[in-house]
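Sample intake sheet
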Amino acid sequence: QAASMVDVHARYIRALEQAGKLNRELEFLPSEEELAERRSDGMGLSAPEFAVLLAYTKITLYREMLDSDVTEDSYLSGELERYFPTPLRERFQDRMQEHRLRREIIATQITNSMVNRCGTTFAFRLQEETGAPPPEIARAYTAAREIFGMRDLWAQIEALDTGIEAQTQIRMLLDGRRLVERATRWLLRNRRPPLDVAAAVSYFSERTAELSGRIMELLPDREAIERATGQLVEANVPPELARRMAILNRLFSALDIVDVAEATDQPVETAAGVYFTLGDRLRLHWLRSHVEALPRDNRWQTLARAALRDDLYSQQAELTTEILRNTPDDLPAAERIDAWVNVNWEPVERTLQVLTDINASGAFGLATLSVALREIRNLITSSAPPVEEVPAG
């Protein structure tokens, strides 16, 4: 990803330099001019340059963790126990919290996990996008990692060493990283800081696991999931792991679905059925694929793309809530959506026509996709249950 992310790396080096945390000349890192030349040549940082940046990232984040209260979080204190070998945990667990380097070990563990799993610029990019400080990003990252059971997933992928092509393994790791990054961003945007990590994990993890086990029967595009699973199996990935990887992108929606289920007092599978069927009916999955294909050659394109994607997920969740609140509980998902469309057919038809026009034009830029999202937003404001007439007098 060196070439595709060269702009991000350039901004990050500049930010570290401006904060007085890095001297690029001393560390033989490329100048702004040299990075511009590499960008035009389709190149990025070299492996030794990445090593330098990785070291400075860990040093900087470690200090920020140590200077905050994140090491006092009761959930994150579990990182202290993970640092020690199993025999020591078994014999001295009751004394570990008294360790004189307790805070330093926790800060090191949090920093290493976040950087090793999500990359050198992970905290920097999320801070740019959300304004959250690194300790709060660490809380959200930890919650996201635990909610989706990423420790187990990473272990399964890494156990495939020498058994599958390296590129397949890297692609799987990047898919996992993408899920954690999106979930971290979601938690930063949808939960008040400081995030209660234990409460977030308790609230989401069980229902997310439940949804993961039933998602295949709830998705309208099961054929696409089957194809993706089959391709991974052909690459020597075990079938169960292949299926888990194939649904990973869809599983991000579990955060919105759990919130919608809670807000409407509906079972998670009911909320998921309406959510996914609605996405298919209104072509939201198609629209999202075009949003995700937008260029991100600079910071502002990246932020605009992320904003459109987040808005689309949010609007799908809001529409799902609207349908669940205003249609009979005993109807299947497709029939509940039909009932809602029958009441709101005019704005729905207008929205679908706009999407058809965009598709016919072949123009999938920021301007056209913003118009599409505006139409979907109008669906939320214009759709409502029929108002009963109040008898005169």
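Comment: The chain is about 70% helix and 0% strand. The two ends are 70 Å apart (CA to CA).
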